[in-house]
Amino acid sequence: MALDFLSVLVPLGAAGVLAATALSPWGGRLPTDATAVLAVRASEPAVETVITRIKSHVLESHPITDPLVTARDNLRVKVSNRDGVRIDGARYYYRLTQRTSFDPVSRGEARDPVVVTVLYPGTSWEVVIYRLP
């Protein structure tokens, strides 16, 4: 099996707080309590593609393709934060670690996400990009 990159399976925990982080060989930041390293199939999109697309949803408004929907407590949230983003046949999610987030891990509906990368680590805009196994 050919490999494009490595990803780490990381339990984010019920509180959803990442542990202390360390630099990974591919330049992202990962929690030091990672439980397993998984090879990612070559058929999955390149990390750069995933990062570019997710950044677009996090940082920009897309009212037609990423409308606001009502979440719990009548809060308005981007559909991409709640339902993820489909990229080349795979669904990726993003989790705002320092703000209210409505992704499956934050809602307590999923465990053991496969972390692709962490954007803006250690800042108030930190974002974990992940997929579900």
Could you please describe the fold and organization of this structure?
With 133 residues, the chain is mainly beta. The chain has one domain (3-131). The protein is 14% helix and 35% strand. It contains 2 helices and 10 strands. It has helices at 47-59, 79-83, and strands spanning 3-9, 21-23, 29-31, 36-41, 68-70, 76-78, 85-87, 90-96, 114-119, 127-131. The strands form 3 sheets. It has a 6-stranded antiparallel beta sheet. It has a two-stranded antiparallel ribbon with strand order 2-3. Strands 5-6 form a two-stranded antiparallel ribbon. The longest helix is centred in the middle third of the chain and has 13 residues, at 47-59. Residues 1-42 have low confidence and may be disordered.
A few lines on this structure:
The protein has about 130 residues and is mainly beta. Helix content is about 15%, strand content about 35%.
